[in-house]
Amino acid sequence: MACIEFSFHVPSLEELAGGICGKTRIAEVGGVPYLLPLVNQKKVYDLNKIAKEIKLPGAFILGAGAGPFQTLGFNSEFMPVIQTKSEHKPPVNGSYFAHVNSADGGCLLEKYSEKRHDFECALLANLFASEGQPGKVIEVKAKRRTGPLNFVTCMRQTLEKHYGNKPIGMGGTFIIQKGKVKSHIMPAEFSSCPLNSDEEVNKWLHFYEMKAPLVCLPVFVSRDPGFDLRLEHTHFFSHHGEGGHYHYDTTPDIVEYLGYFLPAEFLYRIDQPKETHSIGRD
């Protein structure tokens, strides 16, 4: 499994918070071409092994990916929250997964550790990893969206505008404190016919409007330095049974965001698809 390391440009930080600091990295594992047009069910990843691949065994990992269908028995949206295995500590899996309720088409959100005891994901994952230490981070507060772009895209494009050709990678967490969002969850069954356009993908997905408070796990990069990256990917969970893939808020007049972010020192591109496309990356 090929793994490429790339050094990000890291701007200085001035604000203080804790929990996501120390040897920060972003890993993009697999990719959408392993899901679309047709699924490649051989693509399964162990996040304890990924932590070693990115030279950070024991890493604290957050992010967005596809659920481990090989153990769950169905497709799902995955929200990794994992303390990986180190020499001195066993791994701890605090991840969530969201899947479609076969009875009514609604959302079912569950803690992964209540179903399985592995540390896997599948097909694709965008991960932010660190030592999980306290330290300087960037705090972002925003409310009342006035433009067409979502919260993450606004930050990503601001970084791109300011830093130009110097790629910046960011991760962390943000809370949608008020309002509602458009989200999706993939069907439990992979598509048996090829999905060759965004329109076909959108017909396959299940879309929802979900309400705050929502805990979001974003990973985004200002520009692709040539590794076929997904520029932004955000999943979320909640404590009221809703979770999925974040698109944008649907209540711009009342929405409120509070986030804590950190630049990544390195990008690791793991198991990059040899054949690629731009479908299904919204």
TrEMBL record:
Q: Does the keyword Hydrolase apply?
A: yes
Its keywords, alphabetically, are: Hydrolase, Metal-binding, Nucleus, Zinc
- Which InterPro entries does the UniProt entry name for this protein? C11orf54_DUF1907
Gene Ontology cellular-component terms listed: nucleus
Major place of residence = nucleus
Subcellular localization, as worded in the UniProt entry: Nucleus
Entry GO MF terms: hydrolase activity, acting on ester bonds; zinc ion binding
Subunit structure, interactors included: Monomer.
Give the protein's recorded name: Ester hydrolase C11orf54 homolog isoform X3
Gene name on record?
CUNH11orf54
